[in-house]
Write a sequence for this structure.
């Protein structure tokens, strides 16, 4: 068997999600966990330090006069504690993000509207997507319930459709995922890792996982 054949076979197995190529060879991928959706309030006390670490990194990417989209998510809720920009235009589909910044003078905020999904505090559906289809943003920061192979996933297809729309209308596309969200599969796949600017994660990400994903996108930790 030639070296070329071995590389081709490894690439095929990797594309099928059966192994992870690492320095010096390959190894079998970890078992993918399934995701059970929690409410926003249930998630607020989970992995708080990881979320704050990620939020600080997001805030450092936000500059004066940026037009940004921030999705729902308890990590995203922390971002505005660390933003230093003097003026930022914010579009969001999250009632929690909106309530956090609506009275702060350095943010001009637009709430998407649409059908309200109480479980996550997110506006979804036709009317929300109509707005998202009509705008362009400098940077989009979106959460995910899990990353499985090259798939960004979420527990609800309507939320996923909205995220797909805004990512397609963003110049820079960032997905927020703490280190516990890798090898986790939620119900609906909304975007491919290869098509995003970067995954923003925490410093506890597994070395092999980081090594795998940085072949497809930027890892910010």
């Amino acid at each position: 068997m030639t070296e070329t054949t071995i590389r081709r076979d490894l690439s095929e197995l990797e594309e099928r999600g059966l192994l992870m190529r690492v320095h010096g060879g390959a190894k079998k991928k970890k078992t993918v966990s399934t995701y059970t959706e929690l409410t926003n309030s249930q998630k607020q006390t989970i992995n708080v330090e990881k979320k704050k670490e990620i939020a600080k990194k997001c805030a450092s990417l936000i500059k004066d006069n940026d037009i940004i989209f921030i999705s729902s998510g308890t990590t995203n809720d922390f971002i505005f504690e660390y933003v230093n920009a003097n003026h930022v235009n914010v579009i969001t589909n999250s009632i929690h993000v909106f309530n956090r910044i609506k009275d702060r003078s350095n943010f001009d905020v637009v709430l998407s509207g649409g059908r309200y999904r109480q479980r996550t505090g997110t506006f979804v559906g036709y009317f929300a997507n109509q707005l998202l289809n009509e705008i362009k943003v400098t940077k989009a920061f979106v959460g995910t319930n899990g990353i499985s192979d090259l798939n960004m996933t979420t527990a609800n297809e309507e939320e996923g459709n909205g995220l797909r729309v805004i990512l397609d209308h963003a110049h820079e596309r960032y997905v927020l995922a703490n280190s516990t969200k890798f090898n986790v599969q939620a119900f609906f796949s909304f975007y491919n890792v290869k098509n995003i600017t970067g995954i923003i994660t925490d410093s506890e990400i597994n070395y092999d996982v980081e090594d795998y994903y940085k072949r497809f996108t930027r890892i910010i930790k």
